[in-house]
Amino acid sequence: MTLRTPGRETDLDIKRWLNDTVSPSFCMAKWRNATIWLGSGMTTSCHHPPAHKIDIKELASNPAAIHNTQQKKQDRTQMLAGERPPGCEYCWKIEDIGPDAISDRVHKSVIYDEEDVHYVKHEEPTENFALRTLEIAFDRTCNFSCSYCNPAFSSTWVKDIKNNGEYTQLKSDGRNHFTHEHNEAQLYKHDEVNPYVEAFWKWWELELHDTLDELRITGGEPMMAGEIWKLFDWFKTTDKKSDMRLAINSNLGAKDDLIDRFIENAQHVPHLHLYTSCEAFGAQAEYIRDGLEWDTWVNNCHRVCRDGNLEGFHMMCTVNSLCLDSLPKFLDHVMSFKDVYGKDFPTFTLNILRFPSFQSPLVLPRPILQSYRDDLAYWLVLNEKQLHEMERNHILRLLDYLNVVEKPHSDTFEPAALKNDFYHFYKQYDERRGKNFTDTFPNLKLWYEALPHD
Fold it and tell me: Are 110 and 14 in contact (CB under 8 A)?
């Protein structure tokens, strides 16, 4: 038995005294956390499992059904029995690396009160549970069209497909991302009533504004969605003292007037956190995250850290095949912000991309992958003492992943198909976006040009 020493536990200690006391597959996210896309009427318990449809018929009488779906209730039942829901494969793949491997289900459980964990394990998993943390997207309007994103989450990606047609000659599991406009992701026009948005506001008034510890707004780009300013108005006008954290996922590439408006509204939110995304440095970041202008993004990061009344600033890194080339240099840049604004400005996470799998780091050949792994391991040696344990563990997890894991997920296509898709996707991406792969990633030039393709 592991004795608990609050404030001094390792992640492995937390897994033992928290998750394992319920079951070997337990994750609190199934009960108290959700990601919900109101434009498409889809939800999931966190960003790892595939999204599934919300039953629109339930919403009229039960707005809580935007979270408490039949799929989640089934997953809860499995977890309480110690079974592994297949949709949570991301965590099982990490944990199967070894007995001390820590997956995200530990991080997604420890944020809740220990008493609440033991409360939910004694309740019927088919009941409706109030949310404590919620990530929600009102629509897909976005000014970026990142290479690993797709039209389901970006209106600018929609324009690419609409103007240039589908990406062709793709074979693998990622091909459907880039073949159509994903109109199912935006079921209602901006001047139409969206029943999923209506359900959110009904649940908000009913209990969400009281039960939520954190509300995170994502997109698309949230600053381009009208509903976010409605939330800011609520914080401005409410007579209720709110301890809720409001978190915004922003690419920080918005025009100056929107950044100004955000900073002004931020003064009325007592616990405001900002999450932004990047994982590469300079021109490589601009290549991966099409629409990003590096100097503008860096300047906006400084502006919100300096003037944005932020309680926390966080950097979400999506680890893909292209970012590894400059990831250590990018992390140096992150550390330079910590030097100016403090250890929490920003914190960073390394989230390993699985879909589309032809953009996974694992598509790269072992010698190149090993070189990148060595560079990152050396970076960790130099910077380990300045990191939070969570940041250190994310790097260690990535190092293990690059060393041990052979394929991104169980349904991944054969390597030849992934390499074919890598070549054809980036060839078309360059033509459509006015980019040049080999100039931007010279260390990958010989490998890229020699890729087998049909």
Answer: yes
Q: Is residue 342 left, alpha or beta, with left meaning phi > 0 and alpha meaning psi from -120 to 50?
A: left
Distance CA 389, CA 145 (A): 32
Nearest to 320 by CA among 252, 219, 451, 418: 418
Contact by Cβ (8 Å): 304, 310: yes
Taking the CB of residue 161, how many other CB atoms lie within 10 A of it?
Answer: 19
pTM listed for this prediction: 0.85
**pLDDT per residue of the chain (454 residues) written in tens, 0 to 9:** 334 445 558 888 999 989 999 999 999 999 999 999 999 999 999 988 999 999 999 998 999 999 999 999 999 999 999 999 999 998 998 899 888 888 999 999 999 999 999 999 999 999 999 999 999 999 999 999 999 999 999 999 999 999 999 999 999 866 788 999 999 999 998 889 999 999 999 999 999 999 999 999 998 999 998 899 999 999 999 877 778 999 999 999 998 999 999 999 999 999 999 999 999 999 999 999 999 999 999 999 999 999 999 999 999 999 999 999 999 999 999 999 999 999 999 999 999 998 899 999 999 999 999 999 999 999 999 999 999 999 999 999 999 999 988 777 655 678 899 999 999 999 999 999 999 999 999 999 999 999 988 8
Among 137, 176, 173, smallest CA distance to 153 is for 137
Chain region(s) in the chain for CATH 3.20.20: 213-449
Options 3.20.170, 1.10.10, 3.20.20, 3.40.50; CATH for 213-449 is 3.20.20
